[in-house]
Amino acid sequence: MRSTRLWIALTAASWLFTVFLLPGWLRPDYHPLSQYISELGATGAPHAGWVNWAGYLPSGLFFAIALASFWRHWRPRGVQAAGLALLFCEPLAWIGSAIFPCDLGCPAQGSLAQNLHNVLALFTYTGTALGVALLACAPGLRLWQRAGWLLLVVLWLGLFVAMLAPELASLRGLMQRLGEALMYGTQAVVGWVLVARRPPALPPAH
């Protein structure tokens, strides 16, 4: 339990450091309300190496270890295991952002790294949404718990679509941060609570 909570805490701290503290320290010209998080580590951006390798990469690694540690404790099965497995799309996106940084401005089309970055983002948003939707279908949940997971999916995808809309470009950074805060924050709180509980009993062997 303690090790899982440690990794959850490290993931949260690393995300907050990368998303909110690094911009102020390294990029006074960066505008978090209107610029994507990935633009901090864009090719050619000031201090991009620091952001990618001291921000995105460790955040992704902490996230992956936290998920793996929770998996080992909770021992998910069936649809719950499939849903939790898809949540690994999230740390993959952070690690991928360090390896395939976007171009300046994070355009819809650009260099090979930018195109791979975009594919990874689409894979992450859809994979995460499907994963959480599967978690909502897990047996034993109450109605309000299922509704909460599904509401999270709606907000996650809704903010993703909104931040891509040209007319909302001045707020796309805010919407991206809000979506990640809702998604990652909910997972962190639920994981923190569940690791203190006894995992479901395994079915008897036949």
Automatic annotation (TrEMBL):
What is the superkingdom listed in this entry's lineage? Bacteria
- Would I find Glycosyltransferase among this entry's keywords? no
What Pfam family does this protein match (any one)? DUF998
Q: Which UniProt keywords apply?
A: Membrane, Transmembrane, Transmembrane helix
Does the record bear Transmembrane in its keywords?
yes
InterPro entries for the chain: DUF998
Q: Please list every transmembrane segment annotated in the UniProt record, as residue ranges.
A: 7-26, 53-71, 78-100, 120-141, 148-166
State the name under which the record lists this protein. DUF998 domain-containing protein
Give the organism the record lists: Stenotrophomonas koreensis
